[in-house]
Request: fold
Amino acid sequence: MLDLSRQYSAIRDEVLAAIAAVCDEQSFILGPEVARFEADAAAALSVPHAVGCSSGTDALWLALAAAGIGPGDAVITTPFSFFATAAAILRCGAQPVFADIDSHTYNLDPQKTEDILRSTRLRIKAILPVHLYGQCADWDAFAALQRKYGLLLIEDAAQAFGARWNGHTAGSLGDAAAFSFYPTKNLSAFGDAGLVTTRIAALDDRMRTLRNQGMRRRYFHDEVGWNARLDSIQAAVLRVKLRYLDAGNQARRNLAANYDRLLGKIEGLALPFTAPQAEHIFHQYVIRAPRRDDLRAHLSAQQIGTEVYYPVPLHLQTSLASLGYQPGDLPNAERAAKETLALPIYPELTEAEQQQVAHAISTFYA
Reply:
């Protein structure tokens, strides 16, 4: 599914030199290398403020908490995402409210979101769309909802570093945005790491305070924060990998186009849809497949890795049963959970390997 050793072999000397420089500098937490990575990331994303942190989950929490979301508030988000999207809302003391997804992009559906805004008595304070699989949510529609209802817009951009909507980068669209650098991401650390971006100076200041136990001055705690700091070794690795990100994202788009060509004639498969306003980075290449689980077993038997993102939508997770959702409440998300399958895609994947994947899928359906 993913062979990180191929990327590492190409940049090994640069990565080890960057790590050695941190060891020589002897500044391991929120040191100069973190500040340098924040500046590089902000430039890459065309935002004035970028705050490094310990994980994508903490990035989501920092964005929400810095924006003032807390007990008594509710946040509309997607049920078709990694669990951290909902968990970060709950960690703030707020309530996640799920709207169904668009059946083509798998992103949060703006119309379903407005249906909730029109009907609910909850105090909705923000919308948290996820740029799933590397494609931005319909930001034109969500920006219109923000203007109409006076809400905050916070991006879960964990899978979308380098993606764009109408030419604007993910991370620069909303009031704040959260990124993950988990090792499987298109920009990945050698462990956990994250980033929060914003155009608002006051949010930047508060996120920096919250990530460091609520301190602006050492041992003077202005509020209750958290240890969400980024370490310098991860920042150093990310700075090296950031230099190759644009080329890597273009390689992913090329691979996706090749999959489209190879798989396009297989009856019954639904290939990824890209909105015309979106520049997709294909963090994942996800098909909708009849008899998905049988197909996955067939591919596994041929040593072809796949993954299901995600087998249980958030509104049906056992730990969130207290929210009161039932099967059938969000049918598009529930259907996607049963039918979607992610195929291998990473910049170093070869065309021969893609042909092997396509042949195995074709054989299964034949």
The chain has two domains: 4-99+106-242, 245-365. Residues 245-365 form a domain with the Aspartate Aminotransferase, domain 1 fold (CATH 3.90.1150.10). The longest strand covers residues 49-53.
